[in-house]
Amino acid sequence: MIHVLTTGGTIDKIYFDANSDFEIGDSLLPELLAEANIHDGYSLRELLRKDSLEMTDEDREMIAAAVSQTSANRVLITHGTDTMAETAQALKSIAGKTIVLFGAMQPARMRRSDAVFNLGFAWAAVSLLPEGVYIAMNGEVFEAGAVRKNLKAKRFERA
Q1: Which residues form the active site (predicted)?
Q2: Would you list the DSSP string of 48-74?
């Protein structure tokens, strides 16, 4: 069983105008899972609806508590990309679980989003990787504490 937590981020953003006004909407993850033909073997919990730039230490503690409290050994977390590496680092002390964070560089509601690919890749990663905390983005897996987002290149890379 894979426990899925949603926390918001770009993957769930809704843009309202050309000035980039946005809000974090309902998670599209149930729809994305169905589109990927994943219908069982998971439980889903919406934890937060935040842009990751607004994440606080208290939010990270809430995420860690939710991960620690689940009986599942495999946990998949949607997260905004800007502070995903910080949250992954904050989860490193949790033992006995495989934890994978993923998100999207473009909202799932947009036609050219990387959300569906990242979900499938992260699903495979959480299913196959050994215990630990990882970020799975755009076809690469990074260990927590050894990754950073390269804003200029719009991708994750080893730190």
Answers
A1: 10 (o-isoaspartyl threonine intermediate)
A2: EEE-GGG--HHHHHHHHHHHHH-S-SE
Is residue 52 marked as binding? Answer: yes
Instruction: State yes or no: 127 annotated in a binding site.
Output: no
Known binder of ligand: residue 56? Answer: no
Specify which residues 2 forms β-bridges with. Answer: 42, 74
pLDDT tens per residue, the chain (159 residues)?
A: 999 999 999 898 887 665 566 788 889 899 999 988 999 999 999 999 999 999 999 999 999 999 999 999 999 999 999 999 999 999 999 999 999 999 999 888 888 899 999 999 999 999 999 999 999 999 999 999 999 999 898 899 998
Kindly list the catalytic residues.
10
